[in-house]
Amino acid sequence: MAACGGGATPTPAPLSSPTPAPTDIFAQSPAPSVVASPAPAASAEPGTSAGGTTYKVKPGDIMISIAKKFGITVAALKKANPTVDPTKMQVGSELVIPPK
Fold this sequence. Notes:
rod-shaped, single chain, three-stranded antiparallel β-sheet, 3 strands, Membrane-bound Lytic Murein Transglycosylase D, Chain A, alpha+beta
């Protein structure tokens, strides 16, 4: 048996560049945007929130008594709370009190 190529064993060529280090995926991606949710309406009685004054309904409250307490009309109170049925107000629910 004859040896090919003169008997020298070729050595593998060195790698052209070292293996790259793992990258930090958080350093490359932009920071997530944070959306601040609006603060809940104040639960004080009466309270103030960004949208105006609020009032927590107590047992025995009716729209006319609440309107008189704040010196406003029942119509103004109804307009500020269009989703509230005056005959079905729940104790503990909050009403928006419009300005005088």
